[in-house]
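TASK: fixed-backbone design
INPUT:
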C-alpha cells in the first residue's frame, strides 16, 4: 500500500525536477489519495515553507548543491556559492516551479478539522470554490456518460432519463440551499456526488437488467415447455381416443373370458368339493385302518410270547414222534381233531364235511389227509432247519 515513504520518494522526484532541472511541474493531490493524515503534514510543510524536514539525506543534499553550483553562478554571479546560498537558491527554485493543487470536498467534518490542524493548506493556497453546476451542465454530463451506455429502451425514453438525472441533481442542490436557510447548516452536493450518482445508476441498471433478463429467459423456457406440453397433451388425447376403443374391445373380451373362468371356477369348486368328500372318506378309512392296525399290533405283541413258546415246542418234535402217531390204527378222537386243525393251518384239503354217527354233534375227521400231511412233516422235521413259512403258520 501507498505510505509516507512512498510520498517522500515522489516529493524527491518533484523537488529534483523543479529545483535542480528548473522545470515547471504540478502535483495534484485529492482527498481520496489521503491514506494517512501524515500526508497532510508533509503537504502543509511544502506549501508553508517549501521544505520538508528529513526528506533528503546529507549526501543527497550535497549532490543537489553540487549540480546547482554552475546554474547559480550564471543567474546570480554576485552571490558566493556557499552551501547556505545554494540551498536557499534550491528552495526558491522549488517554490517558483512546483505548483501544488489540492482537491478537497467540503462535505463532512474532515474538511473543517483539517483546516484547523493544517492551516498552511488553506492560508498558503488560492482557493477556488466550485459552485453549483447549472442544470444544463448536469444534463450534458449525464449525456456524456449515458449516451453511449447500452440501455434496452427506446431512444426518446433514454433521453428523458438523461434529462431526469440533471433535474434530480439540481433538485438536490436546491434542497441543500433550503436546508441551510432553515437550519443554518451547510450541506454540499459536489460534482463527485453527481458522478457517483451516475455510476450507481449504471451499476444498478446493469444488475437489475441481468436479473430481469434471467427471469425473462426462464419465462421463455417455461412457455416453451408449456407449448411442448400442450402439443404432447393433444397427441396423447388422440392416442387416448384410440386406446379407449381398444380398451372397450379388450374389456368385452375380458368379460367373456371372465364368464368362462367363472363357469370353470364353479365347476372346479364342485370337483374340489367332491374330491374333498372322497378325501375325507379315504382319510376316515385310513384312520380306521390305523386304529385296527394299532389293535392288531397290540394283539400281536400279546401273542408274541405264545408264538415263541410254540416255536420252541415245535423244535422239540422229532420224526419218530410223527411216525408213532402215523402207526396208530385208530388214534384217539382228540388227536384226529388236532390234525384237522393242522390241515387248516397248512391250508391243505380236508374230506367232505359229514356228521360223525358215533359222536352226535361232531363232523367226521379227515384222518387220511392228516396221514399225508404227517408224511410231509416227517421229511421237514428231519431237515436241519424248518422253512420260514412253517414257522409263520
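OUTPUT:
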Amino acid at each position: 500500500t501507498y505510505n509516507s515513504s512512498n510520498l517522500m520518494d515522489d516529493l524527491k522526484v518533484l523537488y529534483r525536477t523543479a529545483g535542480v532541472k528548473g522545470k515547471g511541474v504540478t502535483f495534484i493531490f485529492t482527498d481520496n489519495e489521503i491514506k494517512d493524515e501524515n500526508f497532510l503534514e508533509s503537504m502543509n510543510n511544502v506549501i508553508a515553507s517549501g521544505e520538508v524536514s528529513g526528506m533528503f539525506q546529507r549526501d543527497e543534499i550535497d549532490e543537489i548543491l553540487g549540480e546547482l553550483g554552475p546554474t547559480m553562478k550564471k543567474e546570480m554571479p554576485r552571490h558566493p556559492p556557499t552551501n547556505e546560498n545554494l540551498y536557499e537558491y534550491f528552495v526558491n527554485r522549488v517554490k517558483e516551479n512546483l505548483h501544488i493543487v489540492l482537491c478537497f470536498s467540503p462535505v463532512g467534518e474532515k474538511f473543517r478539522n483539517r483546516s484547523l490542524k493544517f492551516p498552511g493548506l488553506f492560508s498558503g493556497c488560492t482557493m477556488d470554490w466550485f459552485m453549483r453546476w447549472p442544470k444544463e451542465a448536469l444534463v450534458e454530463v449525464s449525456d456524456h456518460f449515458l449516451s453511449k451506455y447500452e440501455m434496452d429502451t427506446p431512444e426518446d425514453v433514454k433521453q428523458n432519463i438523461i434529462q431526469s438525472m440533471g433535474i434530480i441533481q439540481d433538485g438536490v442542490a436546491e434542497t441543500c440551499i433550503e436546508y441551510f436557510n432553515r437550519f443554518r447548516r451547510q450541506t454540499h452536493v459536489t460534482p463527485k456526488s453527481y458522478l457517483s450518482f451516475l455510476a450507481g445508476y449504471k451499476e444498478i441498471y446493469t444488475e437489475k437488467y441481468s436479473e430481469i433478463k434471467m427471469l425473462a429467459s426462464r419465462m421463455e423456457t417455461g412457455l416453451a415447455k408449456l407449448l411442448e406440453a400442450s402439443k404432447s397433451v393433444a397427441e396423447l388425447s388422440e392416442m387416448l381416443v384410440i386406446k379407449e376403443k381398444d380398451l372397450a374391445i379388450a374389456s368385452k373380451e375380458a368379460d367373456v373370458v371372465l364368464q368362462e373362468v367363472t363357469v370353470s371356477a364353479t365347476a372346479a369348486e364342485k370337483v374340489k368339493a367332491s374330491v374333498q368328500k372322497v378325501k375325507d372318506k379315504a382319510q376316515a378309512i385310513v384312520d380306521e385302518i390305523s386304529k385296527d392296525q394299532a389293535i392288531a399290533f397290540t394283539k400281536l405283541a400279546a401273542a408274541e410270547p405264545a408264538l415263541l413258546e410254540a416255536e420252541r415246542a415245535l423244535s422239540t418234535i422229532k420224526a419218530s414222534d410223527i411216525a408213532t402217531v402215523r402207526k396208530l390204527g385208530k388214534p384217539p378222537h382228540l388227536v384226529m381233531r388236532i390234525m384237522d386243525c393242522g390241515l387248516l393251518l397248512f391250508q391243505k384239503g380236508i374230506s367232505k364235511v359229514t356228521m360223525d354217527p358215533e359222536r352226535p354233534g361232531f363232523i367226521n375227521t379227515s384222518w387220511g389227509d392228516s396221514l399225508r400231511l404227517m408224511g410231509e412233516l416227517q421229511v421237514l422235521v428231519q431237515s436241519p432247519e424248518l422253512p420260514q413259512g412253517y414257522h409263520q403258520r
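COMMENT: The two ends are 131 Å apart (CA to CA).
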